[in-house]
Amino acid sequence: MISKKKNKWCVGVLAVFSFCSFGLSKQAIAESYPAAFDPRQMGTVTPVKQQVGNFCWAYAAVTATEQNYVNKTGIQADLSGDYYARLLEENGYSGADMVFERAMGWQGPVLEKDFSSDGPGSHSKEELEKVPAAVHVQGFTTLPALTNFQTNTADEITNRINKIKSAIYNHGNVTSSRNGLQSYRTDHDSQNVLVQNAVDYPDHVVTIVGWDDSFSKNKFTYKPARDGAFIAKNTWGTNWGQKGYYYISYEDAYLRNQELYFVNSVESPDNYKAKYGEGVINGGRRIETKSSKTFGHVFDAPKEAEKIDAISIRTAVENVPYEIYVNPNGVPTKGLEGFTKVAVGTKADIGAATIKLEQSIPITSKEKFSVVIKLTKPSNLDKMPIPAELGAIGREIFRGHSLDENNNWKKESDTNYLFNVYTNSNEPVNLGRIKDVFPAPNFAAEIAKQLGKSIHDSLTQEEADKIKSIVLSGYHNQEVDNAQGIEYLSNLEYLQFQDGKLSTLDLSKNKKLNWLEVSGSLITTLDLKNNPELRWIDATGSKLTSIDITNCTKLESLQLGTNKLKTIDLSRNPKLSFLSIYRNQLESIDVSKNPELNHLYLGLNELAAIDVTKNPKLYYLRVDSNSKIAKIDLSNNPSLLELGAGKTSVRNIDTSKLPNLKYLELVGNQLKEIDITKNPKLENLYISKNQLTAINLKNNPAIRFLSIGENQLKALDLSVNLQLISLDVRNNQLSVLDLSKNLKLKEGTYQTDNNPGIKVTPPKV
Question: Which residues, if any, are the signal sequence (predicted)?
Fold first, then answer.
């Protein structure tokens, strides 16, 4: 049992809405996840918190926020849990959801170093609300409790596990409320709360940050049915548990009978200039409707020119169709007259999300502008609840409007709907002359060409925002040696600086980039932490000694051949399917977190080992000229078509689990034997410079190219290999070679030199 030490206990509830779950996200069910995911091993964790007072929920919430931010940006932010403890101390027994609601309104979070407290009442609410946020929370999600948690089937539990894994993998965090004492082991390293014990009131909140499928069920005091556990980060300091962490069984009942929350978007505090709207619940919790509901707010227009770039929406049930409309020049009059539809979609999850507009909407009015949201009730519901602030005590401003069945607008007297409008400056920003902004002549010329200008003309930020693609290649006398100015191309999606003299490249401001080619450059370092949309990278033939792709979670293709890399971290690239890092200086590589990998080229490195047992989709594998590799386990690669492992230390290789293999290269490996009888589709076989004394090719009728020279063969039966068009058996000990049935072999396509006294029966004409 855990001793009741000072500052360790808290009472918290994570419950805002009590609505039922209406199905699990198809994406969460369909995604495949690695067997283990531990941010402690990736260096993407923030310090364990030491809570003060009964405010675990505040500390767990900022821990979740930190984890999302470091996962997405690589930047660690030590946020203050005590700030929210003071801000919400009137709601002493609160929950992480209350923190996320405040954060959506940009009330915090604040940095630990920027906030000091002398305990309860040391700051007025007004003072606290004025402290600038260190980061901006732009969304959070609720995973509703399962209504039938006491009788969940194994499949239902698995689906719940996958939902939690999806949140952790994609967003870094899940907050879980539970009973702090229930069923811990005496060493405080694991917990499994049984269904019959989960009726106890939850009094603690922790943050789940990872998992381990192999964590033994025998390590729990109350043994669950299956192995596997989530990694939880506590708020009781590093002297508790495993330096502040412990394991929660996949079957823990509190994971199912309580709502779970996670932060889905955290951005830098300069992401928008201003925020309009209400993201905080202070009064009532919801409005119910039996059909669709159209509602909106009227806002005072800004004094300076601004444009609407994003709008957050809030839903209380899953799979809600939405439409967003903007009137930048006035208030609602009749229906949607004067409004423009700016976004449409279906919000799959419960909670808040920020919808970024495809095109900015300038606010043209000097007095008022309006934003309207239409939510449509999902067909499986009788009523749809809508989060709102109703009759809040002390609240004087109510902006809510709703559209009635007669298409008339009604101004609400006591309602604020929970959505925010985010804006940026719309003042024209003159960046200077194009030739000065982009010193590289070819770069400047390309910008001017796309904008229909001269390089001597001035450039505004609005014009720079129009540039989405840059293609400049040394092959066409368009090489670039200076990328200065690229920081202004915030909407850049496609970039090609090929075969130039470019030695440095800062892409930290090009967050929409999805295609990058800098092959043949002089670049030594690529820091791509701020480029989460990247799907394709080619830096072949450059001078790279380091590359950071840890935040490129959408990356599918990575080509880094002929560089100087000694190491690379691929642990955060689950969608990677094409990987080519030949001719580098790699001493080790881990591809176990890349289940989609199908093409892997690692030839000409310094690898001592390669493990591809977690890559079942692999169809191309080349590890040739890695002299230290002595073993390759191919037991879980049934799709493999091409294998190259020549000039390694592999002396034995098992290809019996490769029924589709078509290409096999094992030149210069000192093999004494090889069994390819289970590879009936083999077409290309290159196994020269070994020590083979015999080989059975009777189960390989598809072979077309056979190179088996410089071995010790004394006999070779090619009677079933009728597709042969090229044969090399030089430097063996063959005395007889019958090619009479190999009719596709022609003179000059078979070589038999240096087989003393050999008698060759040529193909029949």
Answer: 1-30
First to last CA, the chain: 88
- Mean pLDDT for the chain overall: 88
Instruction: Please list, residue by residue across 412-445, b when 16 or more beta carbons sit within 10 angstroms of its beta carbon and e when fewer do.
Output: beebbbbbbbbbbebeeeebebbbebbebebbbb
Strands (E) across 611-728 are located at: 620-622, 642-644, 663-665, 684-686, 705-707, 726-728
Position of tokens 């707010």?
Answer: 297
Flag whether pLDDT at 397 surpasses 70: no
Q: Quick one: tokens of 294?
A: 């159209």
Q: How far apart are CA 17 and CA 413, in angstroms?
A: 24
Per-position DSSP letters for 294-306, written without gaps between them: EEEEEEEPPSS-E
Q: What is the rounded average pLDDT of the residues 58-86?
A: 88
Amino acid at 735: S
Model confidence at 518: pLDDT above 80: yes
Taking alpha carbons only, the member of 692, 691, 657, 696 closest to residue 675 is: 696
Quote the CA–CA distance of 697 and 1 in Å, as a whole number.
67
What does the block give as tokens for 177?
A: 């409320």
Residue type, 41: Q
Looking at per-residue confidence, does 491 or 283 come out higher?
A: 491
Alpha-carbon distance of 706 to 688, in angstroms, equals 9
Structural element, H or E, at residue 156: helix 154-171
| pLDDT above 80 for 657 | yes
Looking at residue 527, its amino acid is: D
Judged by average pLDDT, the poorest of 26-30, 224-228, 247-251, 614-618 is 26-30
Tokens of 376: 């449509």
Query: Which pLDDT does position 431 carry in this prediction?
Result: 94
Distance between CA atoms of residues 606 and 556, nearest Å: 25
> pLDDT tens digits, residue range 154-179?
999 999 999 999 999 999 899 998 87
Q: Is 126 helix (H, G, I), strand (E, B) or coil?
A: helix
Task: Count the Cβ atoms, other than its own, within 10 Å of residue 248.
Answer: 24
- For residue 601, the cross-strand partners are 580, 622
Q: How far apart are CA 512 and CA 210, in angstroms?
A: 28
Dmax (CA) for the chain in angstroms is 106
Give me the sign of the Cα torsion angle 522, 525, 529, 532. positive
Q: Which of 578, 544, 588 is nearest to 563 (CA)?
A: 544
What is the C-alpha separation between 39 and 37, in angstroms, rounded?
A: 7
Helices marked H in 219-282: 254-257
Candidates 303, 297, 310; CA nearest to 367 is 303
Mean of the pLDDT values across residues 219-232?
Answer: 89
What was the pLDDT predicted at 475? 65
What's the DSSP call for residue 50? B
The encoded tokens of residue 507 equal: 């892409």
Strands 350-362 and 306-315: antiparallel
Q: Is the pLDDT of residue 15 over 60?
A: no
- Among candidate residues 138, 137, 116, 134, the one with its CA nearest the CA of residue 76: 134
CA 684, 690, 691, 697: dihedral to nearest 10 degrees? 0
Q: Identify whether 302 is preceded by a cis peptide bond (ω within 30 of 0).
A: no
* β-bridge pairing 458-460 and 340-347: unpaired
Element (H, E) at 67: helix 56-73
Amino acid at 34: P
State the residue for tokens 């010193």.
Answer: 439
Other C-beta atoms closer than 10 Å to the C-beta of 750 total: 22
Please say whether the dihedral angle defined by the alpha carbons of residues 118, 124, 125 and 126, taken in this order, is positive or negative.
Answer: negative
CA angle 287, 292, 295 (to 5 degrees): 60
Tokens of residue 580, six digits? 């080519």
**Local confidence band at 2 (pLDDT 50, 70, 90 cut-offs):** very low
pLDDT at 91: 56
**φ and ψ of 711, to 5 deg:** -125, -155
Task: Tell me which residue of 175, 178, 155, 148 sits closest to 164, measured CA to CA.
Answer: 175
Q: Higher-confidence residue: 96 or 739?
A: 739
Three-state SS string across 606-648, please?
CCCCCCCCCCCCCCEEECCCCCCCCCCCCCCCCCCCEEECCCC
